[in-house]
Amino acid sequence: MAENNTQNSRRTFNKVIIAGIIGADPEIHRSANNVVRATFSVSSHRRTSNGMKTDWLPVVAFNQLAEIIARYGKKGRLIHIDGALVASTWQDPNDANRQIKRLEIHAKELLFLDNKNPEAQENREAIEASTGENETGNQEAPEEVPSEVSTLDEILGKI
Hints:
This protein is α+β, with helices and mostly antiparallel strands. The protein has a single domain (12-132, 141-158), classed as CATH 2.40.50.140. Helix content is 22%, strand content 40%. It is globular and about 50 Å long.
């Protein structure tokens, strides 16, 4: 059974690519371990039978990418984000019987699309700061990412 799960996991991937407008200036947090975390939302538009619908998608960037978002990522900027969808679950600090679940995009790469100069300083810094992957191709997340991460099936099963 374990071998089958390993084979199945090799056939899956988690990749999100989005281009949208930053909805508000990013919130920046620095942990006690000096990990920088930037959170912000990006608008995405999609067609529905009733016209266009705007979705606001939560995005998180860490360390160098977080610093770049803090410096250049202002409300209204057009941005391209390449990352992964991460499902997090944690205990509600105000209600012991309630767990909070959230899906968010963890940015691995970003580019500002509203600058007419693709060689602009913010894009050079963003490319240089794109999060590295280890030898197996897996991104090493900072320790401050919630440790109890659920699969999408687990989250959808609890809704």
